[in-house]
Every structure is written in structure tokens, then in C-alpha cells.
Amino acid sequence: MDKFINFTHIPKCAGTAFYYSLVRESIPEKEVYFPRSYSEIIRSKKDYRYIRGHWPSGITRFMRHNNYVRNGVVNIVAFREPIAQAKSLYRYYTLERSGAKGYRKNLERGVLDFYKNKPHLCNLQAKYLLGFLWVHHRSPLGCMQSRIARQLARLASRRLRSGYDYVLIQEDTMSGFEFIGGQLGLVCSFQRPDLTATADAHAVITLSEGEEEELKSMFNLDCILYRWVCAQYRCHGFIPQKWEAFSEF
What we know:
Blueprint: E1 4-8, H1 15-23, E2 32-33, H2 38-43, E3 50-51, H3 67-71, E4 73-79, H4 82-92, H5 103-109, H6 111-117, H7 124-130, H8 132-135, H9 149-163, E5 166-169, H10 173-184, H11 209-218, H12 220-236
Parallel strand pairs: 1-4, 2-3, 4-5
């Protein structure tokens, strides 16, 4: 039996493109699962090889009944420049067709006020690596992120080096998909992410230099982690076990 493919789909970080480029062409639809809650995952008795949706690192611990998981797990994650990810996620929450609640109010607020009112949506790239307790918007750990950002980035980097088989950078997804497809025997039919809710939302979000810096401070944890990820990716490629230990750049 083939191994389970676990792509940690951080919002607005190439997850839809990964599915349509590699998974849809290679894995039968009956072996793809799209659960709606953690409890549904825990209760499910299905054997499936790929899970859709936004699930953080460690989600396969809830799937011990799954024979694909028992056969082994290939962990993959993609990162994106944090400010670009923040703008794209904000755009999603301002579009009617996305189904986002309060999309008109979100649009009126602007990107900075939006994240000030929804701080749980900041630093999602690091939070998804750290696990589900960090992702939950009522997490008691969330208030710590600004005080110990470097320590948390170091912890996330350890999770990445020890727990993941492949790492992608969204700006270089085409070569990443081809590499992973070759490694895992998946058909790679690269599809640009034109099926996402924000794909044809061409409005450019412009910020002043001061606003850009303020947004970076709100995403400081992701910015610290991303600088390290990019440096290691450029030097050592897609496989994080070959990367050097975390140091701030």
C-alpha cells in the first residue's frame, strides 16, 4: 500500500495548486478526504491517502486507524513571503464569493485594522508548524507570540527539520511540484492557482512604508521563520533534514 501524503495547507500558501497539480491527477477521488472538523477525522474509519482542508502539523496523529498512515506518512509544506500571504488572506475575507462572514466590514476596515481585530490570523505559517493548539483562534498560547517570537521560530524550525520530508517556496512551486512528483511517483500537471477565491481579484493592496512596517511587526514570527526557510532552501534545496539549525537572518 502507498504512503499517506500529508500536505500542511497553510491558508494562501499553494495548497490548492498542489492539489490540482499533483493529487487530482494521481490519487483516485475515493482516496481523497475532505473532513469538516477534528472530530470527524477522529471518528472516520475510511482509508484515504490525502486529506484536503487546512489542518496543522501533527494532524496524522488522529488517523491511526488509516492503513495508508500506518504504512508511512510523507509530510510536505509550502511557505510564502509573509506580507504577500497576509494581503492575499485579507483579500479572501473581503470577497463575497469566498463566503467570508462580514466581508463588507472587512473591506471597510483595511488590512491593518483587519488583522488588529483578528490577531489569530497573524503568523499562520509558524502556527501551523507548531500544531493545532496554536492555530485555534482562542488558543491560550497565542498571546505569547510577540514576546518570544525568536524562540517560537526556533521551535517551528525544529519541527520542520525533524518532521517534514519536503519544503516548497510558493514563488518556486513549479520546480517544487516537478521534484516532488518525481520523488513520489505522482503525475505533475502544473496548474496555476486560478481556482481559488482570490485568483481573479486583481485589486492591488497598497500600503505606505510605515503601514508595511506595522504589518511586518504583526507578522514578526512568520517573517523571522521565512528568512531562515529561504536561506536554507537556496543552499540545500527541498529536503529540510539537510538544512542547518535555525539562526536568525
